[in-house]
Specification:
Elements: H1 2-41, E1 73-76, E2 79-84, E3 91-92, E4 107-109, E5 114-117, E6 131-133, E7 138-141, E8 155-157, E9 162-165, E10 179-181, E11 186-189, E12 203-205, E13 210-213, E14 227-229, E15 234-237, E16 251-253, E17 258-261, E18 275-277, E19 282-285, E20 299-301, E21 306-309, E22 323-325, E23 330-331, E24 354-356, E25 363-364, H2 368-371, E26 378-380, E27 385-389, E28 402-404, E29 409-413, E30 426-428, E31 433-436, E32 450-452, E33 457-460, E34 485-487, E35 492-496, E36 509-511, E37 516-519, E38 533-535, E39 540-541, E40 543-544, E41 557-559, E42 565-568, H3 573-576, E43 588-590, H4 607-640, H5 642-651, H6 659-665, H7 669-679, E44 688-691, E45 695-701, E46 707-713
Subcellular location: Cell membrane
Keywords: ATP-binding, Cell membrane, Glycoprotein, Leucine-rich repeat, Membrane, Nucleotide-binding, Repeat, Signal, Transmembrane, Transmembrane helix
InterPro entries: Kinase-like_dom_sf (IPR011009), Leu-rich_rpt (IPR001611), Leu-rich_rpt_typical-subtyp (IPR003591), LRR_dom_sf (IPR032675), LRR_N_plant-typ (IPR013210), LRR_R13L4/SHOC2-like (IPR055414), Plant_LRR-RLKs (IPR050647), Protein_kinase_ATP_BS (IPR017441)
Length: about 725
């Protein structure tokens, strides 16, 4: 009896297991067929990463038909539960993907491919899906409302596609969602208030879309939110005060929208906040004093708004602040005393790296805490009304890379302290009341790319150290070899332009206008082959313009007006295309430019022969004269040499005429010119051995003489 019962139990177990195996195998075959059908629909011909996706030739119920060993496919209990095909060069649509064949699929990553078309509504049948990533493809159309059926979804990434339309309110049904990323699409319309139902959501990325309308107050209900990126959209209206309830928030980005109104004081309650960016909006009113309670804040960007009033002194409490940008607002003084500081005592924690308050209405002095801020790398105070002694400001900031104090009322003289910034790349002190001369030590900032000292009251000469390379001081390079922009205009510099400035080989812009510079334009400046803009106007420069400017092919703009310069202008595009305003006010410039007199032709020869004849004369006349003198001298020696006379008496007049004299008598200037052209290959640059202000010197070996050197004059007027 017991044996019969055991046999019966065994039979039941066998039937159950066999039935289960048949069911699993049946599902597995269905999944395999569905994947093969989708593979066939893809446009790529080789499917190199999907070569393992093939059906076995055996019976369909055989376990060999399982796709569990295929590339990108993972199974659980014989059923496909993970599909990871990220960055697999897939090219096609999801139209032939049979979603209903994958009842156990929990993870699907198809990101970074070339998939296009719409997201099929049938995707809502993946009821067990936890993770879905279709990012970085070319999907278009709307987000299907059926996506709200994926109630087990934890992560939804649809970023960097071409999706449009509005965010479906059905997304608010995804109560398990912790990570929602829809950025960099063309989504439009308002944010659905139903997003406030996503109480588990920790990260929300909606930036770089065309979303509009007000930010719904219901966003304050997403109490577990850690990161909120809603920047670069078209949101309007005020910032809802309910955002102050997001106590776990570390990042809040609302910049580059059209938000208006006051900044809510409630934002100051976000004790975990580290990164706050509200810039590029239409926010007005004052900066909330409650921001001083954001004890974890490292970045605060409020620039390019319409904020007014003073900068709250409470910001000095932010010990971890590294980046503070308040520029392009209407911020003004804290009190009526213009000689006190209107900036809070920042950098108390010694961590501030970037500080900008430019384009405001601030007055007073720079606070001592900023002057002593050794961590500061970038500081912009320009276009305010700050005062103070320039020699005392920011002298203890050795890590400065960028400093702009321009368009203020700073005074005093530049000191050697300003040469102690080895990493400095931009120094702009333009339009202040700085006096005195430029100290030579200012040239110690060897990384400097841009220097602007224009519109001050500086005097003296321009230091030669600006162009000095590997000076005599051991271990110190006194040079600006990385300088791209130099502006010393509107000062009182005198004496000559130092020739050392011809070593600033990376310079693209040079403005020395409106000074009292004298002497000639140094020919060394024509070594600046990177120069694009040159302004030497309104000085006392004299003499001729170096013709070496003709080799500066990158020069696009030049202004030499109001100098006593004279002579022909160089035949380069910058000079030939210059307006008369850029050339006027000189002593006697000439050239083929509208508004200038043509240069005088030294003879009545036609233009087309002037260049050739000038070259022939400059070569033939000196060379012919030298040969003539040599022949005459040889003849005289022959006449007065007693031995020669005796020989002639004895031998009679049977000798032929002297060959040297014969060669002179038959000298052909045109033939020699042709020989020179041939020997120099029509004055090729490889035969040029030097250049001067009036011509180029060439070396040639002529058939009838030894190696000779000759000068080819620059023409006054070229063929037109």
């Amino acid at each position: 009896m017991l044996e019969k019962q055991l046999c019966l139990v065994s039979l039941v177990l066998f039937v159950t297991l066999f039935s289960s195996t048949i069911n699993v195998t049946s599902v597995s075959v269905k999944e395999a067929n569905a994947l093969i059908t989708w593979k066939v629909s893809l446009q790529s011909t080789n499917h190199s990463l999907l070569t393992s996706w093939v059906l076995s030739p055996h019976d369909n119920i055989s376990t060999s038909a399982t796709p569990c060993s295929w590339f990108g496919v993972t199974c659980n209990n014989g059923n496909v539960n993970r599909l990871n095909l990220t960055n697999s060069s897939l090219n096609g649509t999801l139209d032939n993907f049979v979603f209903s064949s994958f009842p156990n699929l929990a993870y699907s990553d198809l990101s970074m491919n070339n998939l296009f078309g719409v997201i099929p509504p049938l995707i809502g049948s993946l009821s067990k899906l936890i993770y879905l990533d279709l990012s970085v493809n070319q999907f278009s159309g709307n987000i299907p409302p059926q996506i709200g059926l994926l109630t087990n979804l934890d992560t939804l990434h649809l970023v960097e596609n071409q999706l449009n339309g509005s965010i479906p309110q059905e997304i608010g049904q995804l109560k398990s969602l912790t990570d929602l990323a829809l950025y960099t699409n063309s989504l439009s319309g308002p944010i659905p208030a139903s997003l406030g139902n996503l109480r588990k959501l920790a990260r929300l990325y909606l930036y770089e879309n065309d979303l509009s309308g007000p930010i719904p107050p219901e966003m304050g209900n997403i109490v577990n939110l850690v990161e909120l990126y809603m920047d670069t959209n078209n949101f309007t209206g005020p910032i809802p005060s309910t955002l102050g309830k997001l106590n776990n928030l570390t990042v809040l980005h609302l910049y580059n929208n059209h938000l208006s109104g006051f900044i809510p004081q409630e934002i100051g309650k976000l004790k975990s906040l580290q990164d706050l960016s509200f810039e590029i909006n239409n926010l007005n009113g004052s900066i909330p004093t409650s921001f001083g309670d954001l004890s974890s804040l490292t970045l605060l960007h409020l620039w390019n708004n319409q904020l007014s009033g003073s900068i709250p002194k409470e910001l000095g409490n932010l010990k971890f602040l590294t980046n503070l940008e308040l520029s392009e607002n209407q911020l003004s003084e804290m009190d009526d005393n213009q000689f006190s500081s209107n900036l809070p005592e920042l950098c108390q924690g010694g961590k501030l790296v970037n500080f900008t308050v430019n384009h405001n209405q601030l007055t007073g002095t720079i606070p001592q805490s900023l002057k002593n801020c050794s961590s500061l790398a970038r500081a912009c105070f320009d276009e305010n009304q700050f005062i103070g002694n320039i020699s005392e400001d920011l002298g203890a900031s050795p890590n400065l890379v960028y400093i702009d104090l321009s368009y203020n009322n700073f005074s005093g003289e530049l000191s050697e302290i300003w040469g102690r910034f080895p990493n400095l790349r931009l120094r702009n002190l333009a339009r202040n009341n700085i006096t005195g001369s430029i100290p030579p030590g200012l040239g110690n900032s060897i990384q400097l790319h841009r220097l602007d000292l224009s519109s001050n009251r500086l005097v003296g000469e321009i230091p030669k150290e600006f162009g000095k390379f590997n000076g005599s001081i051991p271990g110190i390079l006194e040079n600006y070899q990385n300088l791209f922009h130099l502006n010393l205009s509107n000062n009182k510099f005198s004496q000559k332009i130092p020739i050392q400035m011809g070593k600033l080989f990376h310079l693209t812009e040079m403005d020395l206008s409106n000074n009292f510079l004298t002497g000639e334009i140094p020919s060394k400046l024509t070594n600046l082959k990177s120069l694009e803009m040159l302004n030497l106007s309104h000085n006392n420069l004299s003499g001729l313009i170096p013709m070496g400017f003709e080799d500066m092919h990158g020069l696009a703009f030049v202004d030499i007006s109001y100098n006593p310069l004279q002579g022909p202008i160089p035949m380069s595009s910058a000079f030939m295309n210059a307006s008369i305003e850029a050339l006027q006010g000189n002593k006697g410039l000439c050239g083929n430019v509208k508004g200038l007199l043509p240069c005088k032709i030294p003879s009545a020869l036609p233009k087309h022969t002037l260049v050739k004849r000038t070259l022939v004369l400059i070569i033939v006349i000196p060379l012919g004269g030298a040969l003539l003198l040599l022949g005459a001298f040889t003849g005289l020696l022959s006449i007065f040499d007693p031995r020669k006379r005796k020989s002639q008496v004895e031998e009679g007049d049977t000798q032929p005429p002297n060959e040297d004299l014969l060669s002179i008598s038959i000298f052909d200037g045109r033939a020699m010119y042709n020989d020179i052209v041939k020997a120099t290959k029509d004055f090729d640059a490889t035969y040029c051995i030097g250049k001067g202000g009036y011509g180029a010197v060439y070396k040639a070996k002529l058939p009838s003489t030894n190696i000779v050197a000759m000068k080819k004059l620059y023409p006054l007027i070229r063929e037109g």
